[in-house]
Amino acid sequence: MQDPNADTEWNDILRKKGILPPKEAPPEEEEEEQLHQTQSVVKTYESMTLEELEENEDEFSEEDELAIEMYRQKRLAEWKANQIKNMFGEVNEISGQDYVKEVNKAGAGIWVVLHLYKQGIPLCTLINQHLSQLARKFPQTKFLKSISTTCIPNYPDRNLPTLFVYNEGEMKGQFIGPLVFGGMNLTCDELEWRLSETGAVKTDLEENPRKQIQDQLLTSIRCSAPSRKDNDEDSDED
Length: 238
What we know:
Layout: H1 9-17, H2 27-46, H3 50-55, H4 62-85, E1 91-93, H5 99-104, E2 111-117, H6 122-137, E3 142-147, H7 148-151, E4 162-167, E5 170-176, H8 178-181, H9 188-198, H10 209-224, H11 228-237
Parallel strand pairs: 1-3, 2-3
Antiparallel strand pairs: 2-4, 4-5
Helix pairs in contact: 2-4
């Protein structure tokens, strides 16, 4: 009896006519085909959004459901992490009524920087400008501002500007009054460094910018100051 799976010209003709059934694929070819189908499914669902996965979930076989669910959870975790990372990005104005909700109940792991200020105080204006830059640089930190007396009734102007730093409802740092900030010479990098010391931001600065300025001033003073030898020579001439 002739083998129907034999590779002969006659068998090929019979298969085309439908007299013989299609040739059975060897086990290795079947495994390769299954692998190809699995890879096709993986490629299909990896290119889909979370919404598309839900819309097309009926089209996947039961064997793929576990892999797809794991992939869905991975994509969802990545999406949530990205949302948290880029949650803020600007300085928002709040009132006293918003204080508890926006500051004390900001959420797990959220750092909050609140600036109490008043219009017409130059240093407050400068700090608001710096905070706007820092909010864009550190969108995972919540930057807020509030007119001092609107937020805290009868808050004294002598304490302005004021920065409060919170994390999960607890105060982690406070900067009160113009002397703490060093006056109008305050740079954005200096403010970033001060906030990084509280934990509110993760700075890429390697050292305190204020220290660099102090070192430069000391160097300048040493260079301009007359030496002891010069003073002795002047005394001899007299």
